[in-house]
Design brief:
Number of strands: 10
CATH superfamily of one domain: NagB/RpiA/CoA transferase-like
Helix content: 40-55%
CATH architecture of one domain: 3-Layer(aba) Sandwich
Largest sheet: 6 strands, parallel
Radius of gyration: 26 Å
Distance between the termini: 50 Å
Structural class: alpha/beta
Low-confidence stretches: none
Strand content: 5-15%
Mean pLDDT: 93
CATH class of one domain: Alpha Beta
Strand order of the largest sheet: 1-10-7-4-2-3
CATH topology of one domain: Rossmann fold
């Protein structure tokens, strides 16, 4: 993937994409504001969520060991994966041990992060997404562009065309009515649910005291995947643990309101190990690090691990609304992706090096975050790291020049007078690296007289 400015250039010129994004994000934003406004104690809930996450992260090693003991005691098996390659090897080995060549999947950002579908395909195992939006993305050979609504960049007509082209059992007279599209997907997936013997999921939360995993979803496909197959494999980031059921209560209020604008989500599925005669016969939990302990070591950036994947920050971000999710080159788009992805992957590539700059720093993301992640502060910190790592040389040179100019009053005064005299020769578009700035902005006109000179002239010589 190219750097964010290049990747987003095509997106901002796509009027249909901008319309789809604006309509969807504004709708979700409005619903969220309405249900959050109903709670007098929303600020206290938000503070509680932040405090629980921070306390958990400070003692993450202890809670993860407690979780492992509880899962094992309940009949499950825990696997530890240091990175994506190890997690993929573990899951592929578990699937192949069952003799199956296909799995059904619950929507999971962790499995997308590690490229599990592709890794399974390389081992001869087909992974079938069952979430409606993920199914649309998979059938369209596409990439998710939103945390909550992966196919947010598609409209109904485009989805209908994908179904007719890629879904053999779709009716030929399929309309682009949402009800008809959902029914076509339901019929397409029914046989998958009933015949699948292995399922792969993620989890929104893991309760350390009981070893319980929790999935929140809106369609019921998750419930089908979590209960019908004989083997269930859950790949979950280590930061998803919460200490107790009482802590979980806080997040079950924060997440639905912040994500879908609902007081509670339609389906909340919980499972603890295995139960004879009920649900899967085998349960495997793959605890995924993949850069998370490195993020935890960063005093400023570690707050990104509080994220509960609600996507509220995406729905208010003016940059995301115009650029869409694909420009971020990651399963985590938007403001949270701009701070989480560079920390998980490092600032080594042009794309990851540019992501901290994919923001206006307006602060809207912080205002809506249900766990109070100060995304603008992390973005500024990452920008400093990107500069120190050797990127953005032109900006660094510009800052050095500005420091030299502003450090002496006489230098600034002379520069202002010179700029006033030469204002007619200043181009409307800067040359070289400066062109990237003026291509999207108008240079402000240089006044004939600086404020400093005007003040001195009109105040009798007093210094401003």
């Amino acid at each position: 993937m190219p750097a964010f400015p290049e990747a987003s250039a095509a997106a901002v010129r796509d009027s249909q994409l901008r319309f789809n994004l604006r309509k969807a994000t504004h709708t979700i934003r409005g619903k969220r504001a309405a249900v959050v406004g109903e709670l007098d104690d929303w600020a206290e809930l938000r503070a509680a969520g932040k405090a629980i996450k921070d306390e958990t992260l400070r003692n993450l090693d202890r809670y993860l060991l407690q979780l492992e003991e509880a899962v094992t005691r309940a009949g499950g098996t825990v696997h530890w994966a240091a990175d994506a390659a190890e997690a993929n090897r573990i899951v592929a080995g578990l699937v192949k041990a069952t003799g199956e060549t296909s799995v059904v999947k619950v929507k999971s950002m962790a499995t997308q992060e590690i490229g599990l579908n592709e890794a399974l395909a390389a081992e001869g195992v087909a992974a079938y997404e069952t979430d409606l939006a993920e199914l649309i993305v998979q059938l369209g050979d596409d990439w998710p562009s939103h945390i909550l609504v992966p196919a947010i960049h598609r409209n109904r007509a485009e989805i209908r065309e994908i179904f007719l082209r890629e879904m053999p059992d779709a009716p030929r007279d399929l309309a682009d009515d949402p009800r008809a599209l959902a029914e076509a997907a339901r019929l397409h997936l029914r046989d998958r649910f009933l015949s699948a013997r292995v399922a792969v999921s993620g989890a929104n939360f893991m309760v350390a005291e009981t070893g319980t995993l929790v999935v929140l979803e809106s369609e019921g496909n998750g419930r089908m995947c979590l209960t019908l197959p004989e083997t269930l494999i859950s790949v979950v980031g280590i930061e998803k643990v919460v200490p107790t059921w009482r802590d979980l209560e806080v997040f079950l209020q924060l997440l639905p309101r912040s994500s879908t604008g609902e007081r509670m989500n339609p389906y909340t599925s919980t499972w603890t190990g295995v139960t004879p005669g009920d649900g899967p016969r085998e349960f495997h939990l793959v605890l995924l690090d993949n850069g998370r302990t490195s993020v935890l070591a960063d005093e400023v950036g570690r707050q990104a691990l509080r994220c509960i994947r609600c996507s509220a920050c995406l729905n208010v971000c003016p940059v995301y609304e115009r650029a869409g999710g694909h420009a971020y080159g990651s399963v985590y788009p938007g403001p949270i992706g701009a701070i989480l992805t560079p920390q998980l992957r490092g600032l080594d590539s042009p794309l990851d090096n540019s992501l901290p700059y994919a923001s206006t720093l307006c602060g809207a993301c912080y205002d809506v975050c249900p766990v109070a992640i100060d995304i603008p502060s992390v973005l500024v910190d990452l920008r400093a790291k990107a500069v120190r790592a050797g990127g953005h040389r032109a900006e660094r040179a510009g800052m050095r020049a500005a420091r030299w100019l502003f450090s002496r009053e006489v230098r600034l005064a002379r520069a202002q007078r010179l700029a006033g005299r030469l204002r007619r020769f200043v181009p409307g578009r800067l040359p070289g690296p400066g062109a990237a700035w003026t291509d999207t902005r108008d240079l402000p006109p240089i006044p004939e007289e600086s404020f400093r000179d005007w003040w001195t002239r009109t105040s009798g010589g007093a210094k401003p």
